[in-house]
């Protein structure tokens, strides 16, 4: 089970790193800038979570596999940019899977560190969306997760499901699976059907 | 006294969350993006302070009231945007009050954790201005606190007054009140009279 | 030796603060905004490193000399902007020296805190480049270190050299000097000869 979780975590790292590298390539960063952005996009959510719960040094810095996987994804994206662009739809699906896993595992880790339900839900969401926020802030654009198809909402829902199951003392495995499916499903449906949250009816005064 | 301080802290959270939500609405974020920005603007200063002094997990994540107050402010701003725009002057006064309280309480907390006078002053200032910096960085603009009417200076002055009073072993309550009045007063006068710091006389070479 | 290291560290702080202040002046920040940006550019790398390894409160907040040196550099740049612009080439050399020192001392500090070779290398690099990233994010532009002349690569090389020497149990002093020379030399050659990393051949689809 643990091996399975680590494998899944590294898959999430891989797809998030691809999203970071793709943004770097589009913003004309050089090769090393692309690799830094890959690593930042893949690990910032987990690093922020670890710093906030006091689990320093963060696992993404201690475990070299995160760096290796992120650099591999960055190199592939850098040298095979056109192929990655064509795969945009599959990548979005992988990204939704990564989001689901990071949200669920982030909430679990916060609960393990003794945080309450509200904090654990917030930290699960942050683990999922933090990488995308860091990626976009580093190229000076408003994070797309603030504007797109239930991205942060899906992460929140997945994390909340895990926290609720934990509070009800349900068995862990089905709770984790349900949380991940809820997050992935919400995001999948939002992409397919263009589900969006309202935008305020703002007029310049 | 403690209840009073918490009440005041939550008022500060409320007005800072309004400023975050107003920026989010103007930048066409969706509802959830607006709520995230409300929470970030209201709590980033305190969260940064807590991480820097090693007080993890940060109180704004542990205490659910911060989240509730920030979301309430975000919802009101989202659905009553026009009304909030009309209230701009009162909101600016509330914001100055929030700044005063966060600067003062931030400096106090740093002193309690055993930090020296320079660090405590800096951390008090950061507690006050951190939320505004996070809000603006997240929508990819230069923080207005770098350019506006003694904003950061007022926070620094309030925090420094508290640290000075603490160093002189003066009684706490009047020192705290004096620091808050100093910060609020400076900011109020700057807004009223357009007080500004100089900008360098830069010519493109 | 320790006095020498501290002196060198403060020289690095000074030149990084100049780079922050120069960016602030160009972006029309007011005097206090320029000082905040000076301090942020000079200390963010070290502060991020200290937070990530759990060494809170960060030394740059505890030791008042960092603040004093950064403010001095900021004041000089603010009032002698034209002179600083003329000194651009010498400043770039100082900046390369600061980068070398921060990368090397950052890696050393991470090793002292018991981190492994990969983490220590990454944290050394982050110590060197973090200030420049914070400076640019705060004025809402893509960090130039992602696009310029081996900046981050030089920091990585310097940090990696120190970590390698440590792993081989070589004597500390020559390893540190070698790491710093490697970083400085790479950066110097890149500036002189316009060495650059490739940029991906991206076409808008």
UniProtKB/TrEMBL annotation, chains A, B, C:
It is a multi-pass membrane protein. This is Trimeric intracellular cation channel family protein. It is found in: Cell membrane. Pfam families: Gly_transporter. The keyword Transmembrane helix applies. It comes from the Bacteria. Residues 7-79, 93-165 form the Glycine transporter domain. Belongs to the UPF0126 family. The chain crosses the membrane at residues 6-24, 31-48, 60-79, 117-138, 150-169. InterPro entries: Gly_transporter (IPR005115). Keywords: Cell membrane, Membrane, Transmembrane, Transmembrane helix. Its main location: membrane.
